Amino acid sequence: xxxxxxxxxxxxxxxxxxxxxxxxxxxxxxxxxxxxxxxxxxxxxxxxxxxxxxxxxxxxxxxxxxxxxxxxx
Length: 73
Fold this sequence. Notes:
Blueprint: H1 2-10, E1 19-28, E2 39-43, E3 48-61, E4 67-72
Antiparallel strand pairs: 1-3, 2-3, 3-4
């Protein structure tokens, strides 16, 4: 993680503020029964467990358009 932050920090100038944004997204599949990698996951917005997929997305912003780095969990 430190190498990533140093790499991203090197892409910006001294006078710009950069931030990393992490977001976990739930793809709900409550009606599915036999889907590969389907899991029981906790939805923190409804405070309930449901069947589906969870995706972690990392974004980097420096007050310009957001750069996204998606990764599967």
